[in-house]
């Protein structure tokens, strides 16, 4: 199914000048830099801005998907309950609000981030110095959409796979540190033995 048939699609708010953070009031703002390479958005690092009463169409909330159309990798991030309040999406970010009867936000983001969709974006990208995916190309991206229960299983399995990969990397790093410590101890013992023999 085409993405345009799965959800409503809105472009972010075009800021006319540099955003000035405020300490209180206002609303959190999601900018291009806030979407990490793995698609994660950390609500705790978002700045707050005060731009007056803006239309609802510029705001992303839990259940929406934020798409990054600019940069080397055009990834999507599903917003979950960690986003405690609506956040202002800043252009060029695009907000997707999926039809919950057809697709979950987590599955939609997962599918957009898969190699097939990324290859499609590679073909559709415009620009040389700054790669950009036109909104029309995003609209026409076709995804395989299984039933909701299957979507949830796929997302859960993917989350377990990411967790396993993170734990494997952590274990490898701990092993490296232990090995390094053992080798340093061997060097010290060898140095002490050499000094004893020389006397």
**Considering the protein shown, what is the CATH homologous superfamily of the largest domain?**
DNA methylase specificity domains
Helix segment tally: 5
CATH topology of the largest domain: Adenine-n6-DNA-methyltransferase TaqI, Chain A, domain 2
Question: Based on CA inertia axes, which overall geometry fits?
Answer: elongated
Rg computed from alpha carbons, rounded to a whole number of angstroms: 23 Å
- Main-sheet strand order equals 1-8-5-6
Oligomer: single chain
Q: Give the rounded overall mean pLDDT.
A: 91
Tell me the total number of β-strands: 8
Main pleated sheet: 4 strands, antiparallel
What is the H/E string? HEEEEEEEEHHHH
Domains (count)? 2
Any idea what the CATH architecture of the largest domain is? Alpha-Beta Complex
Spans of at least 5 consecutive residues with low confidence:
none
Q: Distance N terminus to C terminus?
A: 81 Å
Output the CATH class name of the largest domain: Alpha Beta
Helix content: 25-40%
Question: From the helix content, strand content and strand pairing, which structural class follows?
Answer: alpha+beta
Which percent band covers the strand fraction? 5-15%
Descriptive account of the structure:
The chain is of the alpha+beta class. It folds into two domains: 3-145, DNA methylase specificity domains (Adenine-n6-DNA-methyltransferase TaqI, Chain A, domain 2); 147-199. It is 40% helix and 14% strand. It has five helices and eight strands. A four-stranded antiparallel sheet has the order 1-8-5-6. 24% of the residues are buried.
């Amino acid at each position: 199914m085409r993405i345009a048939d799965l959800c409503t699609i809105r472009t972010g708010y075009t800021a006319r000048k540099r955003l000035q953070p405020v300490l209180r009031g206002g609303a959190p703002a999601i900018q291009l830099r806030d979407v990490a390479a793995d698609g994660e958005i950390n609500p705790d690092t978002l700045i707050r801005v005060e731009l007056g009463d803006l239309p609802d169409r510029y705001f992303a909330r839990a259940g929406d998907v934020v798409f990054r159309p600019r940069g080397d990798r055009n990834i999507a991030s599903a917003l979950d309950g960690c986003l405690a309040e609506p956040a202002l999406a800043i252009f060029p970010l695009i907000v997707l609000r999926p039809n919950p009867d057809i697709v979950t936000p987590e599955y939609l983001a997962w599918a957009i981030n898969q190699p097939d969709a990324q290859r499609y974006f590679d073909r559709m990208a415009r620009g040389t110095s700054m790669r950009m995916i036109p909104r029309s190309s995003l609209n026409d991206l076709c995804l395989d959409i299984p039933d909701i229960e299957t979507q949830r299983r796929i997302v859960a399995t993917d989350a377990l796979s990411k967790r396993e990969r993170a734990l494997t990397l952590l274990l490898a790093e701990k092993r490296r540190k232990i090995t390094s410590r053992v080798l340093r101890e061997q060097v010290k013992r060898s140095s002490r033995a050499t000094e004893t023999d020389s006397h």
